[in-house]
Design brief:
8 strands, Rossmann fold, 224 residues, 6 helices, alpha/beta
């Protein structure tokens, strides 16, 4: 449904990604950030779903063509740890937001796992954004302080998550509330990565559909 594109980062360098356009010409935009596996077919499929829901969706390729197979967690961890999160967010992700906002459209940011952490960093550092939806990812506080979040955020976390633990989520929630931020939090009795339908071991269809409905409704409210 979508297509591979190249777009410019603020520093003038080229970045690539997967773009799926909505049927209408003046659609709002959503930047979609990959899990630690890379720009997989599953993430491209989510862009297609956003397009069907009425948004232009662009997933920037943060790993520059590398996609890790789902069973290879060591390689995924290596790729994630070698990613320059600040450069990825303030340059590649911001470039994607600028691309989607070029005709005056409002733009949101969403991401999963690694992409959830990038979404929170982006919420503090990308001025083109109007809203963000986080899926089971929180960056270290030195990367993004809740007090610095500049946009309304909605967040989806799993109660059986050993990476983004419930304790970590509670701490983030308290910090967001203490800072007086616009923040909606939902917890699901599911595993980390429950939205990913290609991973049958963790996918929870009921939770995924509930979260998807909440996310698209939130973006319609804030992006138009």
């Amino acid at each position: 449904m979508g297509t591979a594109i190249t777009f410019k980062r603020p520093d003038g360098k080229d970045a690539s990604g997967y773009l799926a356009n909505a049927a209408r010409g003046n659609a709002p935009g959503v930047v979609v950030i990959q899990e630690w596996w890379g720009l997989s077919d599953q993430i491209k499929g989510l862009c297609d779903r956003f397009a069907l829901a009425g948004f232009d969706a662009l997933a920037p390729d943060l790993y520059k063509g590398k996609v890790v197979p789902y069973h290879d967690t060591d390689s995924a961890n290596k790729e994630m740890n070698s990613l320059d999160f600040m450069d990825a967010t303030t340059q590649t992700v911001r470039g994607a937001a600028q691309y989607l906002s070029r005709n005056g459209a409002k733009v949101g940011l969403t991401g999963f796992c690694l992409g959830g952490a990038v979404t929170i960093i982006g919420a503090t550092k990308i001025p083109e954004l109007a809203a963000g939806v986080v899926f089971y990812g929180i960056p270290p506080e030195q990367a993004a302080k809740p007090a610095d979040v500049k946009i309304p955020l909605q967040a989806h976390f799993a109660n059986k998550d050993d990476w983004c633990t419930p304790e970590l989520v509670t701490g983030f929630e308290k910090a967001m509330k203490a800072a007086g931020k616009s923040f909606e939090l939902f917890r699901y009795d599911a595993e980390h990565a429950f939205v990913n339908e290609q991973r049958q071991a963790v996918h929870d269809r009921e939770a995924a559909e509930l979260a998807w409905g909440r996310a698209t409704e939130f973006f319609r409210k804030h992006l138009g």
